[in-house]
Design a protein that fits this description.
Helix content: 25-40%
Order of helices and strands: HEEHEEEH
Radius of gyration: 14 Å
Strand order of the largest sheet: 3-4-5
Largest sheet: 3 strands, antiparallel
CATH architecture of the largest domain: 2-Layer Sandwich
Length: about 110
């Protein structure tokens, strides 16, 4: 699961903020399922998307996700293809790899 800083970076780059799932805020960076357990204002909350939500937001641009056991004692890599060329991202978890690939592709445009 992504942490607050990663989820907030997605939000800042335009990742949709849905009304369900996990949320986190700057004051309580742990992702919470139930918002009432957090001392944050609603405007401070960021969605913490699941792996399925991340891949779904990539849409047809999502190409693949793989585990690379020989890279940094095991790391994930996700690759997206847009109309120009592939872009990818690495992460310690599948969620981080897809989020990093989405951010990298978003920064290209």
């Amino acid at each position: 699961m992504l942490n607050y800083d990663q989820a907030n970076e997605l939000k800042q780059k335009g990742f949709p903020q849905r009304g369900w799932g996990f949320r986190a805020c700057e004051h309580n960076k742990e992702a919470l399922k139930h918002v009432q357990r957090c001392d944050c204002q609603m405007v401070d909350l960021v969605s913490v998307p699941s792996l399925g939500e991340l891949i779904g937001q990539c849409g047809k641009e999502f190409h693949y996700l793989e585990f690379l056991p020989m890279r940094n004692n095991g790391e994930w890599y996700a690759q997206l293809h847009d109309n120009t060329k592939p872009c990818g991202g690495y992460g310690a978890t599948p969620d981080e790899a897809v989020a990093n690939a989405w951010l990298k592709c978003k920064l290209k445009h």
